[in-house]
């Protein structure tokens, strides 16, 4: 197809369909046949899903086909060749179609006749096989066309009648024909024109519609109740009965009016709001009336002011009444009197009085409160304040506690106070501060238990509360308390001082003995000694010693490190009181004592040595070894030779002078003096001394100014005294200068003493030895700097930004910032910027730029390498060479073909 | 009795007669009978409201002549 004529045909086709439908109504007998056939078709082609419209058309086509049987037969014939879905038209058909197309609408009768004849023939030959609807449709349409052509004249007539006919044609085929139809029901539109008339959906807009009956059947199958078809009739009945209702007008409708003509119920008509309202109004009015009447009735009973009263109006009656009242009163009085008289006569009055008194006595008074305990502090009850106390809740069975009175509000207050106190305590330390000492109001420390705040909770009973008992010497207690309070307030912020004890004393540089005695000494020394000494021994020793020694420790703390025992010993020594030394098995004690003695001895020696007096020395020293010997061997009681020490100012000064540079002397010592007393350490050295008989070398080697030990066991030989004297000379505070001329050793010694040479300190780890342990990148300066920085930081935090930044004084860095490109070239400012910029943006320069720059760089390089005396091409040197060769001062320029050039142009060109 | 038009806009358009106290499910069955689709596959909609099966037409205020959208699921 595909031409415009085809479209036209389609339109015509549609029209034709209607017509054909009307036509099929006419041919009543054939219709059934065709339907059966049609059903047959559908049965076979069950699988394909078709739209109903299609089916309609199909059926109609079939029907129309039945009208024109010939065309139908043709279509059947076609289906033989093709049973598939596609719309394929056999050649023969194509021919006919073409012919039809070609053929103008008014065909000749001859043609039509021939057509029909052919159709009939085919019909006879072939039975109707199943056919696809589309196919059929198409064929039938074509047939219809031919039909239309056939009955051209009649159609015109029929068309005029069409509207009427169409309504008739829409009547459905009987729905009862088949089950299958119901499932996919073909029935066309509703038959009854009445139901259609009230349907709100316009006819042309509607899709498939079932009639009410059909729907009802369907609903019956689905198990639903039938449609309520009363609405339509109601409307009509309403419309019809409108006149009647108007006629009735009163609104009284009997039940029959709710039924339509078929006896079915109608809806109850809506209530008339107007009537309702009227009724309501009426009822209200009636009610109002009723109430009014009731009120009026009530009012009618009451006398009004204007109404006359007989009693009051009549004067005599009024007077009578008044008299009556007075009389009654008098009568009552008289009766009361009579009764009283009677009571008195029988003595009842006294009894009554007694009773009253007793009752008063029995009443709860002050004295009955006596002995009751009040569970509050007495101070809580201010004077002139009323506090209501109630009995405290207690166990019923708990009788021994007795009744206590409390005030609920005060209890609450107390609880609150306690809570506050608990809260005040730091929860982190669990309310217990070990170091905090608490005092009560009188300054006595309060003993506290650990975590006492929980005591209440744990023990289950509250802390002893302040309470008092009513009726007990309240006043006394109060007075006492008041006095205490007064004292407290007086003492508050004051310190007690007595005037008696303050004896004025001269301030002295030295400690008094008493002070010394109270002076605190480091305890650890005593501990060490205690391991060896016994308290009893010490006591024995201390017994004979008396106070008042002339040896005062200087404030400088020379003796600060010395021990008690030492001190006592010294005192003993200096006074040279008689000591009874027992030869003891206790070697330790012996040794300690001897050592202390030795120390003392040295001290003495030093003190006295300056004004060197050999005799005195001998006098001093001589007995010592003897004493030593004696003490060691026999325990004879010895007597000291001198009692006094001469403290010479110069000597003292010089002694200190000599002392100070040496390390380890008594006053100058930082180490614990225990070294001196440390027996075990010194023992070996002592042994050495003993072996070497205490020669000078060992003494000097031992170190100048330190304590030397003298072997007590050793018996000093006479020669030793001299030695000792020499020794003493040697040990003079200001040493004699060694004789430089005597030898190298002496010279060295001198150098050492003068400080020209530095003695390598043995005790310190030497720098060279421990060099590998020292930090390599860390100097003392750094450390100091770090500390400084630390301080600075701290200061910065504390003092804020006002502080200047302190520069390191010696720090003068030589900063040179160079940018170097990938080729190692140093970039200038511009280039550096460009470089950085490219880096930053991640985008380099273009290719041309790079080339250009490279070129430039090359040129620069050339420029730099270029000699300043020659041209870049070296012509000058060449000229000079030429001149050398020719040994002439000139060069001949010749051979130029160009005349323009000068004399010198050509040869140079030649050189090239 | 009311009449409702159901239209899937794909070519099926049916008018269904039913009672206002029918449920949507009943309506669906009726529609299914008319269109030939299974009633479980039918979805009735009005705008974005999907009508639910157990609820009555009157409760949805579906009146005579209303147009429902017919969808399939």
Automatic annotation (TrEMBL), chain A:
Pfam family, one: HIND
Polar residues bias spans: 543-553
Keyword Transferase attributed: no
Biased composition (Basic residues): 7-20, 39-57
Ranges that cross the membrane: none
Keywords: Coiled coil, mRNA processing, mRNA splicing, Nucleus
Region (Disordered): 1-256, 537-577
UniProt feature, compositional bias: Low complexity: 190-202
Keyword Nucleus: yes
A GO CC term attached to the entry: U4/U6 x U5 tri-snRNP complex
Residue ranges with Acidic residues bias: 75-85, 563-572
BP GO terms, sorted: maturation of 5S rRNA; mRNA cis splicing, via spliceosome; positive regulation of gene expression
Superkingdom per UniProt: Eukaryota
Chief location category: nucleus
Positions with biased composition (Basic and acidic residues): 90-123, 134-168, 243-256
Coiled-coil region(s): 285-362
Subcellular location per the Swiss-Prot or TrEMBL entry: Nucleus
Family: Belongs to the SNU66/SART1 family.
Protein name: U4/U6.U5 tri-snRNP-associated protein 1
Organism: Drosophila willistoni
Gene name per UniProt: Dwil\GK14964
From TrEMBL, chain B:
Any single Pfam family the record assigns to this protein: Ubiquitin_2
Keyword Acetylation recorded: no
Matches recorded under PROSITE patterns: UBIQUITIN_2 (PS50053)
Keywords: Ubl conjugation pathway
SUPFAM superfamilies cross-referenced by the UniProt entry: Ubiquitin-like
CDD domains in the record: Ubl_UBL5
Ubiquitin-like domain ranges (all copies): 2-73
Cell cycle listed as a keyword: no
Official protein name in the record: Ubiquitin-like protein 5
Native organism: Drosophila rubida
């Amino acid at each position: 197809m595909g031409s415009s004529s085809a479209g036209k045909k389609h339109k015509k086709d549609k029209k034709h369909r209607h017509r054909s439908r009307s036509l099929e109504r006419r041919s009543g007998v054939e219709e059934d046949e065709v339907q059966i056939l049609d059903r047959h078709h559908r049965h076979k082609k069950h699988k394909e899903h078709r739209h109903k419209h299609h089916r309609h058309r199909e059926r109609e086509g079939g029907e129309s086909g039945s009208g024109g049987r010939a065309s139908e037969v043709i279509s059947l014939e076609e289906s033989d060749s093709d049973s598939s879905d596609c719309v394929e038209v056999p050649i023969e058909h194509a021919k006919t179609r073409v012919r039809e197309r070609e053929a103008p609408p008014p065909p000749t009768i001859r043609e039509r006749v021939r057509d029909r004849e052919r159709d009939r023939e085919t019909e006879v030959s072939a039975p109707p096989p199943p056919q696809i609807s589309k196919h059929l449709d198409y064929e039938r349409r074509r047939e219809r066309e031919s039909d239309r052509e056939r009955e051209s004249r009649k159609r015109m007539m029929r068309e005029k009648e069409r509207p009427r006919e169409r309504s008739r044609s829409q009547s459905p085929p009987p729905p009862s024909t088949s089950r299958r139809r119901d499932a996919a029901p073909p029935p066309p539109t509703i038959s009854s024109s009445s139901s259609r008339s009230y349907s709100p959906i316009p006819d042309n807009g509607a899709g498939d519609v079932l009639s009410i009956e059909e729907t009802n059947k369907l609903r019956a199958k689905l198990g639903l109740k039938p449609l309520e078809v009363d609405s339509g009739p109601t409307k009509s009945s309403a419309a019809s009965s409108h006149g009647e209702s108007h006629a009735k007008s009163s609104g009284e409708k009997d039940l029959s009016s709710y039924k339509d003509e078929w006896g079915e119920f109608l809806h109850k008509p809506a209530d008339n709001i107007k009537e309702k309202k009227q009724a309501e109004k009426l009822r209200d009015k009636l009610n109002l009336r009723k109430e009014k009447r009731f009120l009026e009735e009530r009012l009618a009973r009451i006398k009004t002011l204007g109404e006359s009263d007989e009693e009051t109006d009549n004067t005599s009656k009024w007077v009578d009444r008044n008299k009556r009242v007075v009389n009654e009163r008098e009568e009552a009085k008289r009766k009361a009197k009579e009764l009283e008289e009677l009571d008195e006569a029988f003595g009842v009055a006294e009894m009554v009085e007694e009773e009253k008194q007793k009752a008063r006595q029995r009443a709860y008074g002050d004295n009955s409160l006596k002995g009751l305990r009040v569970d509050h502090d007495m101070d809580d009850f201010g004077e002139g304040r009323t506090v209501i106390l109630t009995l405290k809740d207690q166990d019923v069975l708990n009788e021994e506690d007795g009744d206590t009175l409390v005030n609920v509000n005060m209890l609450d207050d107390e609880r609150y106070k306690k809570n506050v106190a608990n809260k005040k305590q730091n929860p982190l330390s669990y309310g217990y501060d070990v170091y905090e000492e608490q005092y009560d109001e009188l300054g006595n420390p309060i003993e506290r238990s650990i975590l006492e705040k929980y005591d209440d909770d744990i023990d289950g009973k509250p802390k002893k509360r302040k309470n008092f008992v009513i009726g007990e010497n309240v006043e006394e207690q109060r007075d006492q308390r008041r006095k205490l309070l007064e004292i407290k307030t007086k003492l508050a912020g004051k310190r007690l001082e007595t005037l008696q004890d303050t004896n004025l004393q001269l301030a002295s540089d030295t400690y008094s003995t008493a002070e010394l005695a109270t002076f605190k000494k480091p305890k650890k020394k005593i501990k060490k000694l205690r391991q060896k000494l016994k308290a009893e021994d010490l006591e024995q020793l201390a017994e004979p010693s008396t106070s008042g020694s002339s040896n005062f420790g200087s404030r400088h703390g020379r003796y600060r490190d010395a021990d008690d025992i030492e001190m006592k010993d010294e005192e003993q020594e200096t006074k040279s009181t008689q000591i009874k030394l027992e030869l003891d098995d206790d070697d330790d004690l012996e040794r300690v004592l001897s050592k202390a003695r030795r120390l003392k001895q040295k001290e003495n020696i030093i003190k006295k040595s300056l004004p060197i007096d050999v005799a005195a020395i001998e006098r001093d020293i001589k007995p010592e070894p003897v004493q030593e010997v004696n003490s060691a061997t026999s325990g004879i009681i010895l007597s000291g030779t001198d009692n006094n020490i001469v403290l010479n100012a110069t000597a003292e000064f010089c002694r200190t002078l000599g002392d100070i540079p040496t390390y380890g002397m008594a006053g100058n010592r930082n180490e614990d003096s225990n070294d001196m007393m440390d027996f075990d350490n010194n023992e070996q050295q002592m042994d050495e001394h003993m072996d070497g008989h205490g020669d000078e070398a060992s003494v000097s080697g031992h170190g100048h100014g330190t304590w030397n030990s003298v072997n007590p066991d050793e018996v000093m030989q006479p020669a030793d005294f001299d030695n000792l004297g020499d020794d003493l000379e040697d040990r003079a505070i200001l040493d004699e200068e060694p004789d430089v001329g005597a030898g190298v050793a002496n010279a060295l010694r001198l150098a050492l003493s003068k400080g020209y040479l530095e003695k390598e300190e043995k005790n310190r780890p030497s720098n060279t030895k421990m060099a590998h342990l020292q930090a390599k990148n860390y100097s003392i300066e750094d450390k100091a700097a770090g500390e400084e920085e630390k301080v600075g930081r701290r200061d910065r935090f504390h003092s804020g930004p006002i502080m200047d930044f302190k520069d390191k004084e010696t720090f003068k860095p030589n900063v040179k910032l160079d940018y170097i490109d990938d080729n190692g070239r140093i970039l200038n400012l511009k280039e550096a910027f460009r470089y950085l910029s490219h880096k930053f943006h991640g985008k380099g320069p273009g290719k041309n730029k790079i080339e250009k720059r490279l070129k430039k760089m090359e040129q620069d390089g050339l420029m730099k390498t270029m000699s300043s005396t020659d041209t870049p091409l070296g012509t000058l040197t060449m000229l000079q060479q030429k001149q050398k060769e020719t040994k002439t001062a000139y060069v001949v320029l010749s051979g130029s073909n160009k005349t323009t050039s000068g004399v010198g142009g050509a040869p140079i060109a030649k050189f090239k | 009795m009311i009449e409702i038009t159901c239209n899937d806009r794909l070519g099926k358009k049916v008018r269904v007669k039913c009672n206002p106290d029918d449920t949507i499910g009943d309506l669906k069955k009726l529609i299914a009978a008319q269109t030939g689709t299974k009633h479980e596959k039918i979805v009735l909609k009005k705008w974005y409201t999907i009508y639910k099966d157990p609820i009555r037409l009157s409760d949805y205020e579906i009146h005579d002549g209303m147009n429902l959208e017919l969808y399939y699921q």
